[in-house]
Fold:
Amino acid sequence: MKAAIIKRYGSADSLRIQDMPRPSLSDDEVLVRVRATSINPVDWKIREGSLKFLTGKDFPKVLGSDFSGEIVEAGANTNGYEPGQLVYGMNNAVKGGAYAEYLAVKISKLAPKPTSLSHEEAAAVPMAALTALQGLKKGGLRAGQHILVNGASGGVGSFAVQIARAYHASVTGVCSSRHVEMVQQLGADRVVNYEEESPLPNTPTYDLIFDAHGTMSFSKARKALREGGQFVSTLPSVDKVFWSVASKVMGDQGSHIIQVKVNPTDLSELRTLIDDGQIKPFIDSVFPLEDIDEAHRKSEEGHASGKIVVSLYAEDTGKK
Structure:
């Protein structure tokens, strides 16, 4: 099978397309013919070596976690999954494996693919949408809340705006000037262009601040939170770890760091929201596997509108 691999940590130039053995299965795994995957920041952080204390020095490595595709083989204990089923999901990012034509994955990390989406669209969902869903729920998401989403035009933020609206919350999205129209299309009730005004008011305004971009601090955001308000960030830092502990004893406002955990229940909820037309993935661009280095470079620039997707075949021709 073809796979995008690295033989050393480094820049996007270190990515290579190479033939690799098809993975073998354990009893609780299925073999998925991957039709599409997507780029997440953790992928290029692993590639460049920022997480080598977790990923080690065993090479070659096949990166990638998000996937959408078709089951071609099922292990003995896979609870009804069988060849021919279309699935989507997310493998552990440290383990990787999704930048390849075939992926062996545990059934605890997948669910039936949303029927209304192409494989390219479905591959844009798992990590970003799960992070948004779980992060918002960590902050106590419920109807009638006033929610601020920082980084509203990115992969996670674009889902957070839509999910909050699906839960009947009022949403303010924060983005740059070139993404204002997109965030309006996502359904935000109000859009703040951070190039022209501060996204954080000096008066208690929000019940929940979801920092999808990872650039806000609780110490500055708390003045914009109402009594009992919650702050959730996607990016850990020393400051945020401190406040996640300190906020538990200093008052009723809370600070949290979300670490996404894939599970079939949340993937199924996302599928329902998608097939009901309440949320959809916004795709910035689609690259063929052969150009995955360019996809990484674009992701590293940090200005994508929605998700960057890698296709492993042309859907209109069935080409693999």
Remarks:
- The chain has a mean pLDDT of 93.
